[in-house]
Structure formats: C-alpha cells, structure tokens
Amino acid sequence: MPQPQLQVLICQSRTCLQQGSALVAAAFLEWQNPDWETIKSGCLGQCGNGPMVLILPEMVWYRRVQPDQVATIVERHLGRGCPGERSEGFATQ
Ligand code: FES
User: Fold this and answer.
1) For the chain, does the N or the C end have fewer beta carbons within 10 angstroms?
2) Does residue 46's CB lie within 6 angstroms of at least one atom of ligand 1?
3) Model's pTM, two decimal places?
4) Ligand 1, closest atom to CA 47?
5) Given the CA of residue 49, which atom of ligand 1 is nearest to it?
6) Domain 6-78 has CATH 3.30.950.30
7) Share of the chain above pLDDT 70, in %
8) Residue 3: what pLDDT?
9) pLDDT tens digit string along 31-61?
C-alpha cells in the first residue's frame, strides 16, 4: 500500500484546543484521501496563532484555521499540491 505523500498536522495542544482545533481536526478527518494523512499533533510551537495546521513535507503553515476553511485548504492545497491564499485569518507563513 503506498504511503501518503503529505501529512496534515493539526495541533491538539492546550492553546489551539481552546481556539477550536478539535473541530478543525474533525473537519479534516471528513476529507480522507490516500494522498495525505491527517495527524492530531502536539504543540507545534506557534501557540496563540491557532488553531494551527502544518502540512509536511512542504512546511506550509496555516494559522487561525476555522472548520469552515478546511474544505478550501483541501481543494486549493491538497487537491492541487500548491499552498492556499495568503490572507488574515487564513494564511501560510
Ligand atoms: S498549542 Fe497549538 S501550537 Fe502550541
């Protein structure tokens, strides 16, 4: 069985959880795909900007992700293999 090409890490540590990262993780898990793996991670070292999402191996960060933005990340980034738009509240770093 082929390994996923990308890993989507969603911080589930204290600050991000307070900012709603459990719902963000649940939203990503609704989009199962063999091309990427969804991982509930520990602290990603970006506390206060959460919910934080990190896509590996590209090292693309999304900050302040809301559950209703997950479909856009999946379609624009994971679906096409390129980072999403840069904008406040939904940005790569
Ligand atoms: S708690 Fe999420 S980055 Fe630290």
Assistant:
1) N
2) yes
3) 0.85
4) 4
5) 3
6) no
7) 84
8) 80
9) 988 889 999 999 999 999 999 999 999 999 9
CB 56 within 8 A of CB 24: no
Q: Is the CB of 64 under 6 A from ligand 1?
A: no
Reduce the secondary structure of the chain to three states and give it as a string.
CCCCCEEEEEECCHHHHHCCHHHHHHHHHCCCECCEEEEEECCCCCCCCCCCEEEECCCEEEECCCHHHHHHHHHHHHCCCCCCCCECCEECC
Pocket test for ligand 1, best of 52, 53, 61 (most atoms within 8 A of CB): 52
Cβ-defined contacts of 66-71 (< 8 Å, 24+): 66/20, 66/24, 66/90, 67/20, 67/23, 67/24, 67/26, 67/27, 68/27, 70/24, 70/27, 70/28, 70/30, 70/31, 71/27, 71/31
Under 8 Å between Cβ of 53 and 65: yes
